Structures are given as C-alpha cells and as structure tokens.
Amino acid sequence: MRILFLGQINRRKGILPLLESLNSLQVPFWELWLVGALSLPIPEPWQQHPQVRWSGPVPRQATARFYQQADVFVLPTYSDGFALTQLEAQAWHLPVIVSPYCGDVVRDGENGILLTEVSAPAIAHALNRCLDAPRLLAEMSARSRSAEFSLARLAQHLATLDHDLS
Asked: What is the three-state SS of the chain?
C-alpha cells in the first residue's frame, strides 16, 4: 500500500503521530511518501527508514504523479480550516484518511476514513483497516466525492442563491 502525505510537513499537519503510527502497522507491505517542505526535525528512525520516501517540495504540476501512484491519501491535521489537498486526492479517486479538522469532505467508510482523533493509535487503526481489506480502498475510491466540490456544482449553488435573493 502506497500512503501519500502531500503538503507542509510540520507539527500542525500531524506528521509526528503519522510517523509514530507506522510502528503499529500489522503487515510489512506499505510505503509512506512524504511530499512537501519539511519544517521540523524528523526523529532519527524515520530519516533513513527504507519504507519512508522523502520527496521534498515539488512543483504543482508534479503532484499529479504522486496522486496517480498512491493507494490512499492521509492528512491527520490538527487545524486546517479546509484542506484543498483532500479535494485533489478525491479528484484522483483516492480514498482519504483525514482528521475532523480539515473540512467536511470525508464520509467515514464511504469515500475515506475520518479519524476520531489525531493520534498514532487512531491513524494506525485507519491504515490497518485499509491494509486488512484492500477491497475497501477500491470501494472508497469508487465513491470519491470530488464532483460535489466541482466548479459546476458551485455554479449551481450560486444560481440557487441568486434565485433565492430575487
């Protein structure tokens, strides 16, 4: 399973509990791809870990390659208002694992997994759910919600507002 984290790699985005959660994965068949600017010291065991890939920041046009090759997107943020990366992941039909602090996009078990809290045990539980049931990833992928947040949908909502104000 290829796990993608794409964004600023810092404490606020939940990177430390994500790394700690990897110790509790029940099968050895995973890779974590970390794509983005690093702004904190990484604990020693994770700097050279053979299953953790550090890509650093990449140009916006290069992010598509990571989304296309990943199996699941994870964003265990502590505070993010509305994370656009979860919409990008959904647009690529990636199931997403997110905290409740990054916008109302994920429906737990439908198009991803909504963490109950930002903690290593909660993240490990979500990742193990995916590792134990690869079919679950395919089902969540098929139910991605990117259409709900499309420009066409926005235009429909704006037209409704305009009509309601008349």
From this structure: CEEEEECCECHHHCHHHHHHHHHHCCCCCCEEEEECCECCCCCHHHHCCCCEEEEECCCHHHHHHHHHHCCEEEECCCCCCCCHHHHHHHHCCCCEEECCCCCCCCCECCCEEECCCCCHHHHHHHHHHHHHCHHHHHHHHHCCCHHHHCHHHHHHHHHHHHHHHC
Residue ranges and CATH numbers for the domains of the chain are 2-165 (3.40.50.2000)
Q: What is the mean pLDDT of residues 113-134?
A: 94
Name which residue leads in pLDDT, 24 or 154. 24
pLDDT-based confidence at 45, cuts 50/70/90?
A: confident
Q: What is the pTM of this model?
A: 0.85
Check whether 153 has a pLDDT greater than 70: no
